[in-house]
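Q: C-alpha cells for this one, please.
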Amino acid sequence: MKAVEVDDLCFSYRNGRVLVGVSFTVEAGEILGVIGPNSAGKTTLLRLLSRILIAEAGTISLFGRDLNALTKREVARTVAVVPQEFQVAFSFTVEQVVAMGRYPHARGIGLETAEDHQTTERAMDETGTAHLAAKYLDQLSSGEKQRVVIARALAQHPRLLLLDEPTAHLDLSHQVEILGLLKRLKSEGGLTIILVSHDLNAAAAVSDRLVLLKEGTVLTAGLPEEVMRPEILERAYGCSVWIDTDPETGKIRILPRL
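A: Here is the predicted structure, written as C-alpha cells:
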C-alpha cells in the first residue's frame, strides 16, 4: 500500500520558487530519506506533507486520501512531526511533554483517559525515556530531549512520522541511539517514516530508499546504492566525493575528497 503519493508538487515563497514538479511515493512501513544541499527544499517538503504549508500546485495523498480533504484533526492523527528545534514556553516534565501528543485524540479539555495514559507510557517505554518522566525538559541532554520529542510524536499514534534532521547537534553515541530507534519503530511497529538529513552516511544507513533534491526538483530517487554514486552526488553538491561499502555491514560510506 502506498503511504504517501506526491505528484507534480510545486511551492513558492515570496522570494521565489522552492519546489518544482516534485513527485515520489513512499510504501507503508518504509523509511524514506530526503537528502540534498542547502536550499534544496527539504524542510519545505516536510511542511507541505504535514500541511503546515499548502501547495500551490500538485497533489499529496496519504494512505489513499487527498491531504487537502482531511480535517486538521485527521491530519494530526495521521502525521506526527519531529522538528529540527523543539521549544516549549514553560517548564514541563517529560511526561507532560509526551502527553501533549495525545491532543488530537482528546475528548474534552483536560480530560485524559486511561488510553491516553497508557499510550503516553508506551511511547516513553519505546523511546527509553520512562525513567526521565519526572524530569523537566530543560534538565535533559540533547540526546535525551530528542528521544522525548520522538516519544511525543509517537503518543499521537500516527501512521506517518516526519523528522527534520533528527541527528543534528548530537554526538556519535546519541546519533546511533536515534537511528537505531527509527529502525526499531519501522521493523517492530510498521511505522512509515520520512526523514530529512544532511548526514549522507546516516541517511544511507537507515533509509530503504532515498530522494535527492536539488534546487527544488528531484535529481534522482531510488535505493541508497543507486543514489549514492560519485557522479550523482558531485552533481548535487558540487564537490568530489569518495564512496565505498563497509565490508561488515554492507552499508555505504561517503567522504568528501579534500
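A few notes: The radius of gyration is 19 Å. The mean pLDDT is 93.
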